[in-house]
Amino acid sequence: MQWFIASDLGELALGGALPPDHVLGVGGASLTLAALIPTEPVDSVLDLGTGCGIQSLHVARHARRVVATDVSARALDRARLTLALNAVEGVELRQGDLFAPVAGERFDRIVSNPPFVITPRGSSAPVYEYRDGGRVGDAIVEEVVRGAGAHLAPGGTAHLLGNWEYRDALGGDGLARVRRWIDEAGLDGWVVERERQSPAEYAATWIRDGGTLVGSPEYDALAAEWLDDFAARGVTAVGFGYIVLRRPSTPDAVRLLRTEVLGSPLGGAPTGLGDHLLAGLCAHDRIAALDDTALGALRLEVAPDVTEERHYWPGEENPTVIRLRQGGGFARTIEADAALAGLVGASDGELTVAEIVGALAALLEVDEGALRDDLLPRVRELLVTGLLSPATESRGAG
């Protein structure tokens, strides 16, 4: 699909540092967020911090109504032109900080690449509207996460980019802090950290982003201010990644609170990642309330994008390494033993999980109860991550 985007010229075209009210065009973060948005149709979407309007173009394809907000009047002017150039209707533009323009309203979906860049406050560091939300540290990501629940309809989801600080004080683990924000907000959450930077790396990334030349006196002064700010607050690293939130459909729903590190530098999400994560939430819903007996009664199928890799020493009968590889989603690689590989290989919808476990116990000459206790938690994990799914005839049981 081809679109016309209205934004400001970058530092290469300008020949110097960007002005504070710069409106960013389409970059790596824009493409990453677009891949994080599900394609399932919904009635209403909030595009929080729309910038040039690129995400509104994406979500308008799958929603009847879109509200796009931004604190920057200049950004809204660019977004308005972007929408007009592409003849996209049904998008309402509103000015204001974060959720203020939509007070009291709820949406089926929220998408946002908030201005999360951690800038030292009270310093000479330039404050860019497109990336700086005016808060200390990662407080703006916390504010968006905690505030999302009040603006999601039951079952509604939010799809966000963000970063979070690791601190040397008690409770300083970055992912644990994000998990706490989600938990205290009463939401489901799936957080994926794709990259982690040291304070020096983080400072360099965002000083260069503003167009300040590396090695210049201005660059060195800004780097010192950034590092002093991190040191004063005990920040040891900053993580980047994706946050998917959901408001539970019912108060008694079994919640999902999942954080994980899937290394590979943040530079674009796999195509269809939003649909993949939404499918994971649905898989969690199907199996969360099932005890082991009910889970064992399911018939499962291995996903069509899963392949198996085995390594053997020359002349040996048994493999030294077995790996299950996922072609889509996050392209996960799962280290498997003979029992797990056997269960996945036998999951063609014909036998129940319990029947497969029983057959494997006999084949491997191990205790069936112990094998069941070992395999069923891993089966739950493979269902949520999409390597396994309930067979068509047993979906109603899950």
By secondary-structure content and strand pairing, the structural class works out as alpha/beta
Helical region count? Answer: 13
Q: How large a portion of the residues is in β-strands, by DSSP E? A: 15-25%
Number of strands: 14
* Percent helix: 25-40%
Mind telling me the C-alpha Rg? 24 Å
Give the spatial strand order of the biggest sheet: 3-2-1-4-5-7-6-8
Give a quick account of the main beta sheet: strands, pairing sense, barrel closure.
8 strands, mixed
Distance separating the two termini: 37 Å
Helix and strand pattern: HHEHEHEEHEHEHHEEHHEEEEHEHHE
What does this structure look like?
The two termini are 37 Å apart. By secondary structure, this protein is of the alpha/beta class. The protein has helices at residues 11-14, 28-36, 54-60, 73-85, 139-148, 174-184, 199-209, 217-232, 273-287, 292-296, 338-346, 353-364, 368-384; strands at residues 42-48, 63-70, 91-95, 107-112, 152-167, 188-197, 235-246, 257-261, 299-302, 306-311, 321-326, 333-336, 348-352, 388-390. The chain is built from 13 helices and 14 strands. Helices cover 35% and strands 24% of the residues. The strands form 3 sheets. The protein has an 8-stranded mixed beta sheet with strand order 3-2-1-4-5-7-6-8, with helices on both faces. A 3-stranded antiparallel beta sheet has the order 13-9-14.
